[in-house]
Write a structure and sequence with these properties.
alpha/beta, 8 helices, 7 strands, elongated
Amino acid sequence: MRIVLLLVLLAGAVLVSATFRPSARTLDQFRFALSSGEVDRVTWRGDGKSMWLLTWSESPLVWHEVQSHGLRDAKGPYTIKRLNADAARNLVVPSIVQLDDRRGGSPFAPDWVFRFPGGTNLWWLATAWIAAFLLMVYSRPRLGNRWAWFWLFTVGEIGALVYLVLEPRVLWQGPGEGPAHARRMSGGTGCLVSILLAIVSVGAALGIGELVRMLLD
């Protein structure tokens, strides 16, 4: 079960990381891809009428973007109205979602698990994370108490991956429980470590995103 949950979470982490490093494109390239039916998700940032960032995907791992200086053509600024009109001409209309970081969910739920860009959440990823969280809650971790792992799961962003690799025995040592740790990590220590883990997770996501972009762009 640990291996299955870990593989599911790793697959989700790669998909989400790919959204961190979209390739630069032009407005003409976006409109051509849209008219060709190659676009399945569109996200934009703006004030409701104009936009300063347009991002879209052409496959789960291929994301592109046009920044504010490129969102203009001979007809003027590329507005939300024009975007919706272009999308409506297609037989299959892609998902179009405005991204607003102020609409964040729970501060104790990692965004990458529950907020996939483009309007369609990855239910299988969220289910795997919840299953791993419940597995931690209803077990007795050996490296830290439940409060420590709570902070690592939530603030630490990728604590669920770390837990599945290390608890109750490091994964490469087979099934069963490992030896009890002399001093289990406390909740306070886990909170501090979770901040460091969150920083590491951002760097890892950017690195994976850049690697995916280089391989698929």
